[in-house]
Amino acid sequence: MSSTAIDIVIDPRVTDLGDFEVRRVLPFAKRREVGPFVFFDHMGPVVFAPGKGVNVRPHPHIGLATVTYLFSGAMDHRDSLGTVQRIEPGAINLMTAGHGIVHSERVPEDVRLDGTEVEGIQTWLALPEDKENGEPAFSHHPKDSLPLYQSRGVRARVLIGGAFGVQSPVPTASPALYVDIELDAGGSLPLPPRDQ
Predict the structure, then answer these.
(1) Which of 176, 171, 170, 17 is nearest to 105 (CA)?
(2) What whole-number distance in Å separates Cα of residue 167 and Cα of residue 124?
(3) I want to staple 73 with a disulfide (CB 3.0 to 4.6 A). Which of 33, 34, 118, 124 is the partner?
(4) What tens digit of pLDDT does each residue of 127-138 get?
(5) How many CA atoms lie within 13 A of 189 on its CB side?
(6) Is the peptide bond between 128 and the residue preceding it cis, with omega within 30 degrees of 0?
(7) How high is the pLDDT of residue 2?
């Protein structure tokens, strides 16, 4: 790939939330979104001291969807729909706010006490105008329900959308592609031309 193929390089802004840091890539002054992705936050990695942890108090969302994906640790999600869901590495939570939802996220007590590292990504997806005021919804998809493409030192778990001949079961209101790719040392993954 030539350097002319790179449109922009974004250095994340770091926010210290006391017990952990979040690195925000989107939105950025020169790039407000990438497709439907309007926020992109990387949290951790962090090992919490006993009794410490992420405690995001109940707060509202409207007109968008949030996606939580963890590499390590665990988070407990609760929302005004009555959902109580633990998310663990490789699983994905999709919360569609629509006309309004309130939720909280917390690191579970067992993760705080045993010194487990917590790391993950939370992204926000804009909803199409005709769905911004729709009914709120929540869906959880365990790791083993998400398709995994494997070939010559490449492992690609398709979280949202379709790629490499497999389709994620995660419902989205607009076309999006979200893939967790791991390569062995020296591995490579040719990407198809942009128009395919």
Answers:
(1) 17
(2) 20
(3) 118
(4) 999 999 999 999
(5) 17
(6) no
(7) 47
By the 10 Å C-beta count (0-12 exposed, 13-18 middle, 19+ buried), 166 is classed as middle
C-beta of residue 76 within 8 angstroms of C-beta of residue 86? yes
The string of pLDDT tens digits covering residues 13-41 is 787 766 677 777 766 767 766 777 877 88
d(CA 66, CA 74): 17
Distance from C-alpha of 132 to C-alpha of 130, rounded to nearest angstrom: 6
The vertex-15 CA angle with 48 and 28, nearest 5°, equals 140
Q: What is the pLDDT of residue 1?
A: 44
69-126 per-position pLDDT tens digit: 999 999 999 999 999 999 999 999 999 999 999 999 988 888 888 878 889 999 999 9
Q: CB-based contacts of 130: which residues, under 8 Å, 6+ apart?
A: none
Q: What is the CA radius of gyration of the chain?
A: 17
pTM: 0.85
Retrieve residue 155's tokens.
């492992």
Question: Where are the strands (E) in 12-167, listed by range?
Answer: 13-16, 21-26, 37-47, 55-61, 64-72, 75-79, 84-87, 92-96, 101-106, 117-126, 137-141, 148-151, 154-160, 162-163, 166-167
Helices (H), the chain: 109-114
